[in-house]
Amino acid sequence: MNSSILMSVLLATLFLTACDKTPVVVNVPADTVVVPGPAGPAGKTGEQGIQGDVGVKGNTGDAGVQGNDGNKGETGSSGDTTVIITPPAESAN
Questions:
Q1: pLDDT, position 92
Q2: Residues whose CB is less than 8 angstroms from the CB of residue 53 and which lie 6 or more positions away in sequence, other chains included
Q3: pLDDT tens-digit readout, 29-41
Q4: Helix (H, G, I), strand (E, B), or coil: what is residue 1?
Q5: Among 78, 58, 15, which Cα is nearest to 7's?
Q6: In terms of Cα–Cα distance, which of 29, 6, 28, 10 is closest to 18?
Q7: Which of 18, 27, 74, 86 has its CA 20 to 30 A from that of 67?
Q8: pTM for the whole thing?
Q9: Of 8, 24, 27, which Cα lies nearest the Cα of 16?
């Protein structure tokens, strides 16, 4: 029993030390910079399209007739109520 435990410990130590523990360095490539090259030759001029027919403009409509004036109301009668406004009383100082 003692020898099986000792053997298990030795095997575990061997497996753990045999692992590669060095970190892996990954070099990321730098961003590519696009540099424009020389300009190319000019392209051909495009063809003009066919112009459609222009419609005929319609006539302007007639102006409407002005409406009639309404009836005038009766003149009001003068009122018979008199309003008297008295000034406020002076305060005693």
A1: 65
A2: none
A3: 888 888 888 888 9
A4: coil
A5: 15
A6: 10
A7: 74
A8: 0.22
A9: 8
Measured at the CA of 24, the angle between CA 19 and CA 28, to 5 degrees, comes to: 165
**pLDDT > 90: what percent of the chain?**
0
Rounded to whole angstroms, the Cα distance separating 40 from 36 reads 11
Q: Could you tell me if residue 75 is left (phi over 0), alpha (psi between -120 and 50 degrees) or otherwise beta? A: beta
CA-to-CA distance for 17 and 24, rounded, in angstroms? 17
As given in the structure block, the two tokens for residue 58 are 């319609």
DSSP alpha helix (H) spans, the chain: 2-18
Percent of the chain with pLDDT over 70: 92
Write down the residue that tokens 């360095």 correspond to: 25
Rounded Cα distance, 53 and 93, in Å: 95
